[in-house]
Amino acid sequence: MSVFKVPDMTCGHCEKVIREELTKVDQQVRVEVNLKDKLVTVDNLSDDRVLSLLKSIGYSPVLYDLSI
Question: For the segment 5-61, what is each residue's pLDDT rounded down to a tens digit?
Fold first, then answer.
C-alpha cells in the first residue's frame, strides 16, 4: 500500500477521475481517495505506475511519507 499527496486535487470530479484512471489499469487495484486531505491510497499497483498515471492526467502527485 502506498499513499500519494495530490495537492492539485480540488473537487469531487478530480476524485472520480483519479479513481477511474487507477482502477482502469487492473481490477485488482484498490484505491481510496481522501479529498479533504488530498491523499490517494493505492494497493496492488507500483509507485512508479501510480505517479506516471496521475501525471498523465494532469496532476502533480508526490509519494507521501507515512512516518511524518
Answer: 999 999 999 999 999 999 998 889 999 999 999 999 999 999 999 999 999 999 999
Check: CB of residue 15 under 8 Å from CB of residue 54: no
Residue 28 amino acid letter? Q
CB-based contact 42:50 (threshold 8 Å): yes
What CATH number is given to the structural domain containing 55?
3.30.70.100
Residue 68 included in any domain: no
Confidence (pTM)? 0.91
Residue 49 DSSP SS3: helix
Number of domains in the chain: 1
